[in-house]
Amino acid sequence: MSFVEYSDLIQDGDVAIIYLSHNNVMPVKVQQGAQTQTRYGVIRHSTDLIGQRYGSKVTCSKGWFHVLHPTPELWTVALPHRTQILYTTDIAFITMMLELRPGSIVCESGTGSGSLSHAILRTIAPTGHLHTVEFHQQRAEKVAEEFKEHRVDHLVTVRNQDVCKDGFGVTGVADAVFLDIPSPWDAVGHAKVAMKKHGGRLCSFSPCIEQVQKTCEALQDQGFEDISTTEVLLREYDVRTVSLPLPDFGPDPESTEEATPAAPPNHASISLKTTTLPREMPGHTGYLTFATKPRT
Amino acid sequence: MADNGDDDNQYRIKEGDYVVLKRGEIFKAVQIQPRKKVIFEKQWIFLDNAVGQLYSTTFEILSGGNLKPHELKDTASPLDAVEAGTDNRNIVDDGKSQKLTRDDIEALKEKGLKGQDIIKKLVDNHATFGDKTEYSQVKYIKKKKKKYENTVMILKPSCRILAMMYHGREPGKICHLRYDTLAQMLTLANIHAGSKVLVFETCAGLVLGSIMERMGGYGSVIQMYPGGGPVRAGVENFGFPAHFHDTLHEFPICHVNALLAGTLDTSAKDPTAENTHEKQLNLAAEKEQNQPEAEEQGSPEEESMVTNTGDDAGQDVEKTEKDKLKEAKVCPALVIASRFHPCPVLLGLLKFLSPSRPFVVYSQYIEPLIECFKKLKECGGTVNLRLTDTWLRHYQVLPDRTHPLLLMSGGGGYLLSGTTVATDHSKPAGSKQAEEPAPKRQKLEDTEG
C-alpha cells in the first residue's frame, strides 16, 4: 500500500480504510497482533486484515464492514482533524486550476491536517515534489510522521516556519503555490520568489471576502496576471423512490358506467424514482483565488 | 527539476506545436504550421512569427495577420488626466455623446490605428465621459478594449485551458461537461501516474487527454470506444510527447460481451488471478488483430477498421503481449463520460475492475444516473455511492466593487461515483477464529445508511 500506488493485499504496516457506512469511515494502522474496536465489534489485524484483499468484506462479532485501499479522497473523510481541512470538491478544482501533474513542484502553506497535501502528492508523483510550510511545530511534526507512514515522505519536505516571514524555504523552483493561511497577502511576495522564473500558477483559499480583496490587491501589486476568484460548491443528492397520491375527483359522469366499479376508489398513487437534496448542505467553504505569475 | 533560469528552450513555441490562442476569455486550439491562415475572433492570423517566442507571450496582430510580440504592457490608461463625476443625475441618454460616427471608426481601423489609440479617440470624442463616475469610466474603457484591442496570447495547452475552451466554444461536443465537473472526475477516480484507467468517453477526447495529462506518461489508459474507432481530436490538442501515446490502448466496446463470455471459459482455471478479465481483454485484443473473423460480434467492416487503426497493429506481437500483460498487473479505475445511456455501460465495464477501485460516471442528465444508482444498490459490489453535481460561481473582485458575476453556468452535468468491493459473500477465513465464541452474528441491514 501506498497513497501513490495501488496494491492488492493488505500488509503489516499499511494504512487501511475501514468503511463502516456512508458517513462512518475510519483509518486503521495495520499492525500484527493489534486490535481495533468499532461499533460492529473488534477487528483483529492479524486475522481480519493482514493478507486480505483490499475491498474485502470483513465480519466482526456484531456486523461487517469493507476494508478499502487508501486514497487521498478517503483519507480526507477519515483523517484526524487538527485544523479545519479542505474537502475533495475544492481540492479537485484547485488541482486542475493549478495545472498539477506528475513532475510538478508545488509549495503549500499551511500544511494543517494534510488533507490537500495528500491529494497534491498523489498527483505530482513520482517525479514531483511538495514543499509544505506549517508554523505550528506540533502539527508539522505530526504531518511529517503521517507522510512517512503513508510512504510518500520521499516526495515532500515539511518546513516548520512562518511563511509570511520566512517564505517557503525555496527559490525559483515552484510550478504552483497554494496558500491557506489567515493573511495570504503577506505571503504573496514569498510565493513569487518561490516560483519558477518562467512563471506558474497560484491559488489562495480564504473564507472571507475581505481576505480575498486584500489578496487580489497584493497579487496585482506583485504583477500576477489572470486573477480570478471562484467558489465551487457540492450538492449531493439522495436517491429515493417517492409515491405521489392521486386525488379522487369522485365518479366521472362522462365515463361509461360499467367501468366505474372497476376503478380503484381512493388509494391511487404513482411512484417515481427521484432525488432530494439534504435539508441542509454546506453553503460555503472558501473563495478560491487563482492567478498566473508571468515570466520574470 | 531545478529551474536554471536561462533554460528557455523548453518554454519556446516551436513549429508543429499544438497551442491555444487566448483573447479575453476566448480560447482556440491550433497547431503552429508555416504560412497557415487561422481564424480567431473574426480575424485572419498567421502564426509564423510566434515560432521561437516564449509561451504566454502576448502578440499584437498587425495588418496582414502577422504577429508581433507585444512588449510594453501599456498600463497607463487613456483616462489618466480625465476628471470624474460623482453620479449620473445629469447624464442623459440622447444617443449623441459619442461624436465619432461608425464610419469614422471604420476609417480609423482602415488606417491601421492601434486599438489603444482608437480607444483614446473614442474617449476624447465622448461628450459626457468626464461626467461618468470613475468606476463607470473604467468599465467603459474595459468594454472598448475588448472590442478594439488587437492582441492574442499564445498559451501552452493544459487540461485547465482546454476544458475551459471546450466548455466555452463547443459544449455540445463534450456533453456539456463543465471544467469543474471534469476536475471532480479526475480526483474522484484517483487518476495518477502509474494507474491503469479504463475510459469510455464521447467528449471529443477531452476526458481522455485530461486523464493522460494526470498520468504523465506513466501507467496505461484503455479507451473503450463505440463505432468504427476512437475519437481523439481533443487529445491531439494537448500536444503530448510521443511516449505518452505508448500508454494509450483501445478496445471496441462492441466486443465487450464476447470478451466477458470468453473470460468465463478460462477464469476457472486461474482462480487466483484477480486480473483475469484484464488479461482476457488483452488476449482478446491480440486475437482480434490476428484473426478478426473469429469474433462473433461486430460487423467485419468494423473489425477491419479496428485492425487498421489499432495503435499496436504494426508492432511486434510478442512485445505487445508482454507489455500488455505487464500492464494487466493492476486493474484500472473506470471513467465514463458519454452520450450513451450510462447504465449498461457502467454495469458492463465495472466487471473489469478489481475490488477497492474508484469509478466515476458523468451524465448531462440526472435521471439515468438515478437508475444507475438503484441498479448498483441492487447488484451490490460497490460502496460509497454518491450522486452529486457542483456549482461554480465567479466573482468580480475590485476595490469597492466586489460581487458575484451576474452570469453563471446553469449546469455542468452530474456525477455518480463510488468504490468497488469484493462481490464474494464468503466470510474471510480469519474472522471466525476468534478465541471467544462470537455472540450473535446479526446481519446488518444496510450499512449504506
From TrEMBL, chain A:
<dbReference type="GO" id="GO:0160107">
    <property type="term" value="F:tRNA (adenine(58)-N1)-methyltransferase activity"/>
</dbReference>
<feature type="binding site">
    <location>
        <position position="180"/>
    </location>
    <ligand>
        <name>S-adenosyl-L-methionine</name>
    </ligand>
</feature>
<feature type="domain" description="tRNA (adenine(58)-N(1))-methyltransferase catalytic subunit TRM61 C-terminal">
    <location>
        <begin position="63"/>
        <end position="293"/>
    </location>
</feature>
<keyword id="KW-0007">Acetylation</keyword>
<feature type="binding site">
    <location>
        <begin position="113"/>
        <end position="116"/>
    </location>
    <ligand>
        <name>S-adenosyl-L-methionine</name>
    </ligand>
</feature>
<comment type="function">
    <text>Catalytic subunit of tRNA (adenine-N(1)-)-methyltransferase, which catalyzes the formation of N(1)-methyladenine at position 58 (m1A58) in initiator methionyl-tRNA. Catalytic subunit of mRNA N(1)-methyltransferase complex, which mediates methylation of adenosine residues at the N(1) position of a small subset of mRNAs: N(1) methylation takes place in tRNA T-loop-like structures of mRNAs and is only present at low stoichiometries.</text>
</comment>
<dbReference type="InterPro" id="IPR049470">
    <property type="entry name" value="TRM61_C"/>
</dbReference>
<keyword id="KW-0949">S-adenosyl-L-methionine</keyword>
<dbReference type="GO" id="GO:0005634">
    <property type="term" value="C:nucleus"/>
</dbReference>
<protein>
    <recommendedName>
        <fullName>tRNA (adenine(58)-N(1))-methyltransferase catalytic subunit TRMT61A</fullName>
        <ecNumber>2.1.1.220</ecNumber>
    </recommendedName>
</protein>
<feature type="compositionally biased region" description="Polar residues">
    <location>
        <begin position="268"/>
        <end position="277"/>
    </location>
</feature>
<comment type="similarity">
    <text>Belongs to the class I-like SAM-binding methyltransferase superfamily. TRM61 family.</text>
</comment>
<comment type="subunit">
    <text>Heterotetramer; composed of two copies of TRMT6 and two copies of TRMT61A.</text>
</comment>
<keyword id="KW-0489">Methyltransferase</keyword>
<keyword id="KW-0819">tRNA processing</keyword>
<feature type="binding site">
    <location>
        <position position="134"/>
    </location>
    <ligand>
        <name>S-adenosyl-L-methionine</name>
    </ligand>
</feature>
<keyword id="KW-0808">Transferase</keyword>
<feature type="region of interest" description="Disordered">
    <location>
        <begin position="245"/>
        <end position="296"/>
    </location>
</feature>
<feature type="binding site">
    <location>
        <position position="162"/>
    </location>
    <ligand>
        <name>S-adenosyl-L-methionine</name>
    </ligand>
</feature>
<dbReference type="Pfam" id="PF08704">
    <property type="entry name" value="GCD14"/>
</dbReference>
<dbReference type="GO" id="GO:0030488">
    <property type="term" value="P:tRNA methylation"/>
</dbReference>
<keyword id="KW-0539">Nucleus</keyword>
<dbReference type="InterPro" id="IPR014816">
    <property type="entry name" value="tRNA_MeTrfase_Gcd14"/>
</dbReference>
<dbReference type="GO" id="GO:0031515">
    <property type="term" value="C:tRNA (m1A) methyltransferase complex"/>
</dbReference>
<dbReference type="InterPro" id="IPR029063">
    <property type="entry name" value="SAM-dependent_MTases_sf"/>
</dbReference>
